[in-house]
Specification:
about 270 residues, elongated, binds 3-methyl-2-oxobutanoic acid, 8 strands, TIM Barrel, metal-binding, 11 helices, about 45% helix, alpha/beta, magnesium ion binding, eight-stranded parallel β-barrel
Length: about 270
């Protein structure tokens, strides 16, 4: 965490990517990025849900353990899932504590800065659990805020600014700003001492984070602020279809098994 703050002071851009299992964790480890996030976006990327809300604490921990087997160098952070920290500081402590005790995660991320949330953050930080904040588009509030760009009006920008200052005050070691106007992120980057890590928040941030599946073109619904670097889904589908065709073709040309010689046990 201190390294990230040093990088901010030095003007070295922080890079962060999400991972959801050991395979994606290995890609993220090999990327040389600074932070690996077991994001609750895995509810959509890996589990097929249409929002991040359904993923449970148990499921997040299962994925965090798998990612943790592949991540050695980057700081490993896990998202606290919906309703694991909104039901009071005791439950939040128990949930966050489980990530630090039962997975290799070194910090947790949680969304928003309502007074109940900042009270939870304060409690976690004072107990030695590092917390990354997350403002702007907060997917756990999708039914209230939608998927669109946030903080577009001047009063909303001022509200977000106050929340960012509050999160810093409560001890967050870094802040993710998602899908907000670039000028606001740029202003907060200058105003805050903690690193500001943007996603769809323009280029003038202390760091950038992306959902790895979006970057690699693996997600069916691409957010408007990420241009995939590969057409992976199409490529994978093509290769798998071609393999199936090849097997059927080879099967047709090979001689059929003799009826008096059926496959034995263990075939
Ligand atoms: O869950 C997630 O993937 C996130 C993004 C901000 C990276 O929180």
């Amino acid at each position: 965490m201190r390294d990230l703050q040093t990088y901010k002071r030095q003007g070295r851009i922080i890079t962060a990517l999400t991972a959801w299992d050991a395979l994606s964790g290995a890609w993220v480890e090999a990327s040389g990025c600074d932070v690996a996030l077991v994001g609750d976006s895995l509810a959509m990327v890996s589990l097929g849900h249409s929002t991040t809300l359904p993923v449970s604490l148990e499921a997040m921990m299962h994925h965090a353990q798998a990612v943790g087997r592949a991540i050695h160098r980057p700081l490993l952070v896990a998202d606290l899932p919906f309703l694991s920290y909104q039901c009071g500081p005791e439950r939040a402590m128990a949930a966050a504590g489980r990530f630090l005790k039962e997975t290799p995660c070194q910090a947790v991320k949680l969304e928003g800065a309502e007074p109940e949330t900042t009270a939870v953050i304060n409690r976690l930080v004072r107990s030695g659990i590092p917390v990354m904040g997350h403002l702007g588009l907060t997917p756990q509030s999708v039914h209230r805020l939608g998927w669109g760009r946030q903080a577009c009006s001047a009063p909303d920008q001022e509200r977000l600014r106050q929340k960012a200052l509050d999160l810093q005050q409560q001890g967050c070691f870094a802040l993710v700003l998602e899908h907000i106007p670039a000028m606001l992120a740029s202003r907060l980057r200058r105003e805050l001492e903690i690193p500001v890590i943007g996603i769809g928040a323009g280029p003038d941030c202390d760091g950038q984070i992306l959902v790895t599946a979006d970057l690699l073109g693996l997600t069916p619904s691409q957010p408007p602020f990420v241009k995939p670097r590969l057409q992976s889904t199409e490529m994978f589908k093509r290769e798998l279809q071609s393999w199936c065709r090849e097997q059927r073709h080879q099967g047709q040309t090979a001689s059929p098994p003799k009826e008096d010689n059926p496959p034995g046990p263990g075939y």
